[in-house]
Amino acid sequence: MEYRQLGRSGCIVSTLCLGTMTFGQETDEAGAHDQLDRFVAAGGTLIDTADVYASTTSESIIGRWLADRPSDVRDQVVLATKGRFPTGPGANDVGLSRRHLSRALDASLRRLQVDTIDLYQVHSWDPLTPVEETLRFLDDAVTAGKVHYVGLSNFTGWQLQRTVDLAGFHGWPVPVTLQPQYNLLVREIEWEIVPACAANGLGLLPWSPLGGGWLTGKYRADERPSGTTRLGEDPERGMEAYGRRSQQQRTWDVLEVVEAIASERGVSMAQVALAWVVDRPQVTSVILGARTSEQLDDNLGAAELHLTEEETARLDDASDPGAADYPYGEPGVGQRSRELPAGELPGR
Length: 348
Description:
CATH architecture of the domain at 3-215 and 278-306: Alpha-Beta Barrel
Order of helices and strands: EEEHEHHEHEHEHEHEHHEHHH
Radius of gyration: 21 Å
Structural class: alpha/beta
Number of helices: 12
Helix content: 25-40%
Strand content: 5-15%
CATH class of the domain at 3-215 and 278-306: Alpha Beta
Strand order of the largest sheet: 9-8-7-6-5-4-3-10
Mean pLDDT: 93
Distance between the termini: 50 Å
Largest sheet: 8 strands, parallel
Number of strands: 10
Low-confidence stretches: 227-243
Oligomer: single chain
Shape: globular
């Protein structure tokens, strides 16, 4: 296992993070505890959950696991959870208001059976609550010793920047991480969100690094999946009007390259896809979402796997989302570009 700083903070975490959204749903408590044991034994430290995962059951399962482990195991864990989404039927049982987050944080602490949460993340933007109200609550939580670090999840670039600016201006804790969806099939955050994180020192904690199972080789081009999938009912989505590949064609192109590299390396497709995300700019730790211990073991095989420049270039080319001309395509980028003139500058 390898380790990195948690964004701008001095806290060190493993480059692979155990996601626990399946705990209490697809994974029962015994299976969840087995995954937690395997993850820590492999050198993993960062464990991510949320108060709404399995209707609070995920946090409770983790809390019982922590309470039943020796202090050296508990001390190794860097614990992250989130608040924002509905935890009850009331109008104030949702959002980033002081009222809701205060109750949500205290409930998470009880379920997790800890005094302090290492990374408390707001699960998504709340258009009804002033950012200042949320940040003042988070400042109070840090001051009270209930939270060590603050993070964001599912924020857009402008939302992230506004939050960071207000926190810095008022002297409140500045977020150290952002948790977005990011994988070979979903790269659009590179246009605005990743640069915003880089400019402000936020580390990325990507979720769904395997694209909902697509990047494991779960589906084949000649076996169209049933139900709702990322290909959608209209795979073209108007992209060809911009001279770009359809979403469907891009997906199969990516899977073909991932499978080829996996075969050349003698590793699984999942490990190749995870290795690509781990080494992207600004990434701190990649969230694994295994349903079974066997899937987790395979994912952990990516812990020290690094792709070559040539392999990365092949994956980058196949997975390029093909931005429209403006503002993220070549004409728009050209308008913002500038290079030093050739030769000596005047006066030198």
